[in-house]
Amino acid sequence: MSQESTQTGTDRAKGSTDRRSFLAGLAAVSGTAAASQGAQAAGWGRWGRGTRTNVIMMIPDGSSRAHDTAARYLRAYRDDPDAYPENIPDVELAVDRADANGYMSHFPADPNSMVTDSAAAGTAIATGAKTYNGAISVDTDREPLPTILERAGEAGYATGLVSTTQLTHATPASFAAHVEDRGMQEEIARQFVDETDVDVFLGGDRSHFRADDRDDGEDLIGRAEEQNYAYVETASELESVSEGKVLGLFSQSGHLDYYLDRANDADNTQPGLRQMTERAIDLLETRSDEGFFLLVEGGRIDHASHGNDPATVPEQLEFDRALDAAMEYARDGPRRSETLTVSASDHDTGDLGLDYGANVAAIDDLEASQGTLTSAIDAASSTSKIASVLESQAGIDDLTDDELAALEEDPSALTGADGILNDRAGLVWGSGSHTGEDVPIYAAGEHAEQFTGSIDNTDLFEVFAGVLDLDGSRRPGRSTGRGRARGRDRGR
Ligand SMILES: [Zn+2]
Questions:
Q1: Both 170 and 274 in a single domain?
Q2: Residue 38: domain span
Q3: Structure confidence by residue, pLDDT tens digits, 44-101
Q4: Does residue 103 share a domain with residue 151?
Q5: Annotation says 433 is catalytic
Q6: What's the 299 CA to ligand 1 centre distance in angstroms?
Q7: What is the three-class DSSP state of 323?
Q8: Do 61 and 205 fall into the same domain?
Q9: Distance 129 CA to ligand 1 centre (A)
């Protein structure tokens, strides 16, 4: 497959030579370019219709049905504590307003586990192929698999990657990088800048891009600016960008802060997930006449749930506000534009349960993640200072002498499934890691009905490819019933 034939299949003006040659290699794996050419020659699909098609994939990493339910209870309590819980049926989260919903399985192709990590799960959604835990869009033989984002970009769509984690973390990486181990974050950053043409990058961790911090001393931020990316580091800088390509890295190292820590920090400069989602949509809308593919990850639900931190509930609520923006765009976006918004967790984390003791008032009182609270307790020099930290930042004013003594001895008495925070919040946790049960999937807008019933994570790739007409076939007209995609040779 030559570079030329790849370009013949697309008519998009933008794009670098590096990217084209890289994608030509991928196309050779998948037959993409030939399929695109065939589509144009036959006059099928969306070419020439003058209508843009957009797909927004939202991933609340580690979320489950229990996370949604807890978020709904918290929303109801915040709306009117006096009317709670009778007002719970009045609450409509974005997930409650979905046009369709179903359940999704997510097991990996891994001899060591039936439970997926975010790398194998992201790869399954992005490429339609099961792989081993830790793999970033490579197959079980370590060969690269073309992703839905890359194929969309190759066909002329604008593309975006947004996450509250490190930009190079497993889930966003799975859509635009190919490495055999998710820990290769410097290489993932290099591939983002040198080998993709993603229009909008918004996430955390500058260190993997900065010459001063990288092992190889490469200045990836400078290289991105040479490719006409606007480089931004704060929420207000992000607001000031009105068009063009953007690389936004909003933390020096590590992930963006938890929602609670951002919301209660007067000096916070990081954007929220809803703001990033809205800005990405605004910017992508102007980038291509074809439309766009956007991946948005609420990545810190997973992290809070690994720690059995009740802060996962407000984190889920923030994700739902971002999903609300993406679903409203799917329903009421600009004319001559069709949008499909899908939200699916990649796996559950924490096995969260709500039993008789669940107390959303205690969750509503939280003004910090358990990590921030633990640091503050660690820094407190007396039991009275510890009591004052927990009263002011967690609304806990009834600590017993035994609890105070335990906290003074070891601040981690606050945290975990059996810690003081969960004692007050009444949340039940069955795990500190990922679990294997199906996760909910929600969809709104064009072709939302495809996401009804029981599906597998590898089915998303095929539906997105159909909606975006990447294989030159007609748009999907059948339901995505379990097994529809089974037994078919997908050429990879
Ligand atoms: Zn995780």
A1: yes
A2: 1-9+16-43
A3: 344 445 789 999 999 999 999 999 999 999 999 999 999 999 999 999 999 999 999 9
A4: yes
A5: no
A6: 9
A7: helix
A8: yes
A9: 20
